[in-house]
Q: What sequence folds into this?
């Protein structure tokens, strides 16, 4: 009887309210009475949804990885070159060291001629310079005439070859990811990533993987596929110049994309992959996920594809 009176009192009170006020009052009462159950139900729903998303993401990952698998190389700052004979070392050094000094000045690469038989080590943090040095030294050894004028000639030839490689690699990366409207300057910078490694991965291979994975995830989640693919391909573009220009690769990358007038949604999508900027769009979240996936895929940590897919499952 007391309960009925209480309910009647509540009904009388609600009868004096507008429809909107009555709804609000009802929701408050339900929330107060069943708050614990509602929270638990929401948690279960969130967990279920998360599991569904993770399952779908794994399926996409497995499919993309099986379709797109490259062998990564380890991060290095030196290159070894075999010599046909030990006496070549003396000719590389030259009289009073003039040859080696001239070579190092032109290339920016240090030559290490230690006690290792028939071996010279080229050392530089800049991978493009290191490749120029390697090609130039190979040409000099093959020619046999190692002297300042010849060093200048072979270094110039090597620089031209590396420029061609950079152009080719940048164009191939854009073609393979289906992104064909990038400014030539960005394509060139992409090509430079071919010589860059980071945490055991080739930077260009990694960027292509992130682009393709991001595109697949965006398609499944209903996000902007073009934005995701472009942001994925360009997310590490700052690494093309971070050995030469001061600043983090992320900040350098943002400046590069702004310089070449990339749309704001692409910059927003790529700038949060290291946590320096908030995740503002679904494409940004996708890039973060694709970046993490590529970083842990087979080859990056010397893990077999079979073991990786088993771990995903």
A:
């Amino acid at each position: 009887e007391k309960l009925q009176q209480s309910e009647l009192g509540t009904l009388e009170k609600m009868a004096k309210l507008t429809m909107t006020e009555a709804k609000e009052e009802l929701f408050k009462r339900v929330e107060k009475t069943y708050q614990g159950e509602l929270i638990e139900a929401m948690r279960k729903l969130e967990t279920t949804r998360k599991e569904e998303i993770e399952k779908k993401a794994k399926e996409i990952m497995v499919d993309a990885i099986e379709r797109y698998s490259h062998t990564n190389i380890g991060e290095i700052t030196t290159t070894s070159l075999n010599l046909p004979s030990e006496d070549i070392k003396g000719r590389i050094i030259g009289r009073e060291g003039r040859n080696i000094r001239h070579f190092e000045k032109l290339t920016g690469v240090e030559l290490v001629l230690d006690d290792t038989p028939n071996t010279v080590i080229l050392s530089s943090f800049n991978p493009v310079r290191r490749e120029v040095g390697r090609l130039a030294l190979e040409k000099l050894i093959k020619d046999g005439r190692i002297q300042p004028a010849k060093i200048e000639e072979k270094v110039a030839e090597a620089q031209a070859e590396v420029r061609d490689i950079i152009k080719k690699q940048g164009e191939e990366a854009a073609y393979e990811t289906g992104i064909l409207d990038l400014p030539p300057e960005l394509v060139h910078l992409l090509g430079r990533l071919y010589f860059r490694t980071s945490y055991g991965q080739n930077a260009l291979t990694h960027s292509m993987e992130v682009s393709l994975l991001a595109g697949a995830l965006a398609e499944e989640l209903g996000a902007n596929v073009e934005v995701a693919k472009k942001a994925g391909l360009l997310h590490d573009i700052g690494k093309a110049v971070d050995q030469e220009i001061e600043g983090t690769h992320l900040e350098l990358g943002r400046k590069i994309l702004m310089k070449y007038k990339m749309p704001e949604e692409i910059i927003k999508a790529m700038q949060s992959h290291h946590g320096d900027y908030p995740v503002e769009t679904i494409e940004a979240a996708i890039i973060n996920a694709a970046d993490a996936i590529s970083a842990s895929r087979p080859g990056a940590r010397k893990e077999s594809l079979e073991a990786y897919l088993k771990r995903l499952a």
Q: What stands out?
A: The longest helix spans residues 19-67. The chain has two domains: 78-164, 178-312.
